[in-house]
Design a protein that fits this description.
Elements: H1 2-31, H2 35-51, H3 58-63, H4 114-124, H5 129-143, H6 163-166, H7 174-189, H8 192-202
Helix pairs in contact: 4-5, 4-7, 5-8, 7-8
């Protein structure tokens, strides 16, 4: 009876040794494999030795390659999928504003009316307001302010200058005709108002 017990004990011991020998061979084979597998095998062997587990779960390390990527390596580095982050490209748009210089338009001076021209010429000649008024009055009676007026008697322009005074001169020009009329009135009557007084008496000057 005791011999049978001893034989069974030796059989269990041999079986246990056989399992341990098989595990050690598997561990040696794993150490010949890649670095990550060796790391797993070492960890499993340590766990067996500490816990006293009879069977080392080596097969799981060989058949689960997916878990390997998440375990740290012996050197402390992590084998993981590299994530490439695209660096955003900042595009700066420069806005160019065209500077337009203001256009300066030269405006021609406003053209004076016939009456304004007569008054200006009289003012430039040094006439007083009463003399300018007399000058305008005579021009109104002689031509009704028409610079190109020609009478049947052969008189020309605003102040109906005689043929001798107008010939060869720009008598149609209101400014020239007025200047020549002032010279005539001053030379013959002494002043423009006196020329007007003569006109009132004779209807000509």
């Amino acid at each position: 009876m005791s011999q049978c017990v001893v034989q069974r004990a030796f059989a269990r011991r041999r079986q246990s040794c056989s399992r341990h020998t098989e595990a050690i061979l598997k561990v040696r084979n794993l150490f010949d494999s890649d670095h990550t597998t060796r790391t797993l095998a070492t960890a499993a062997l340590v766990a067996v030795l500490v816990a006293g587990v009879g069977t080392i779960p080596i097969a799981s390390a060989e058949t689960t390659p997916v878990a390997v990527a998440a375990l740290p390596s012996a050197a402390g580095s992590t084998s993981a999928s590299a994530t490439v982050e695209a660096t955003p490209t900042v595009v700066t748009t420069a806005t160019v504003t065209a500077v337009t210089k203001p256009t300066v338009t030269a405006h021609a001076p406003a053209k004076l009316t016939v009456r304004q021209t007569i008054a200006k010429v009289g003012h430039d000649a040094g006439l007083k307001r009463v003399e300018i008024d007399a000058l305008l009055w005579i021009a109104k009676r002689e031509s009704n302010y028409h610079p190109t007026s020609v009478s049947r008697g052969g008189c020309y322009g605003l102040f109906q200058l005689s043929r001798g005074m107008a010939a060869g001169h720009p008598w149609k020009d209101p400014a020239w005709n007025t200047k020549r009329a002032i010279k005539y009135m001053k030379g013959r009557y002494g002043s423009v108002p006196k020329a007007k007084a003569f006109w009132l008496r004779h209807h000509w000057y």
